[in-house]
Amino acid sequence: MGDATTAAxxxxxPPEWLNDAFLETVLRKSEGDRDLHVxxxxxxxxxxxxxxLASQLFRLTVQYGGAKQSGVKKLVVKIQPxxxxxxxxxxxxxxxxxxxxxxxxxxxxxxxxxxxxxPLKLPKCVHAGTVPQPTIILEDLAPAGWKGHDLIESYxxxxxxxxxxxxxxxxxxxxxxxxxxxxxxxxxxxxxxHPLLDWMFGKNLTAFIEALRTWHGCEQFVEPFExxxxxxxxxxHNIYSCKTPGRVYNVLNHGDFHAKNLLHQFNDEGAIxxxxxxxxxxxxxxxxxxxxxxxxxxxxxxxxxAAHKDDLIAFYHAEFTATLKALGFLGYIPTMLxxxxxxxxxxxxx
Length: 350
Prior knowledge:
By secondary structure, the protein is α+β, with helices and mostly antiparallel strands. It is built from nine helices and nine strands. The chain has helices at residues 20-31, 85-88, 91-115, 155-176, 195-214, 222-240, 289-299, 302-326, 336-345, and strands spanning 37-45, 56-65, 71-79, 125-129, 135-139, 251-253, 262-266, 272-277, 284-286. Strand 2 (56-65) and strand 3 (71-79) form a beta hairpin. The longest helix is centred in the N-terminal third of the chain and has 25 residues, at 91-115. Residues 1-9 have low confidence and may be disordered.
């Protein structure tokens, strides 16, 4: 299995089919203007050549004219790669998941939340299709001031993204009780023990165990980690499966919920005041513990987790509950105890 530098292909120029004619077809549909025509297109690759990416990414600046209006569109284009270890193994499934999310499910979730004054901040999807190559085109949020950030360093700044994920979970829970099936959002990579997992997890565990052997006073931890190394695929399969015995409830998880998949708005003092998440390639119908452990381990700084873990979980559950009530849900709403049970049962992620 190759290393990270061969994991995905990130060409400096877009494919030939991503041309004026293709963009005209896309924009005519999204803008509702049959006479729209593309005047010029500027393309910039996202990321560095050889960088580990699950998609080929480009930023486009499209100048256009039309019967209704003229203007400039700032777009981000995501294309399923054709080469590299990701493309050869998991990426087809990942991209299909994101196409399905943008093609149907996110629209439903955004609609019911917006109609009930619980808006979910999502980038506008301009195009999602498979011809001539699986492609998603989104509005570029950078011109509107949305920026990436490192780990969130205060409890108050963590609230906006906690609200977003709570609403996302609540909308999926509500829809699941109203004839929307999310069970197709499952992964079998852990059950099948996909070879890529050894590259992603196994080698790191092995290296960590070998390091433990050399650290004075840590010898007693070697055997427990060896057990983890032997069965981590089974543990992860049980967590990510929606049909694990004893599961209290499922929600649609973002599934890749970490700092690099977030964008934020900042106030004049540099504090985060709004947040949103991107990239839905790993969305899965399973325990809410998946996204919540991401929140605690990969989004907030450790000092925030240490001081406010319980506060964040309580804040999340309060917004989850309030959102379901705002949606008019009359069924059983999972309690804080239910959530704590899920977190405890899936503590391997913590």
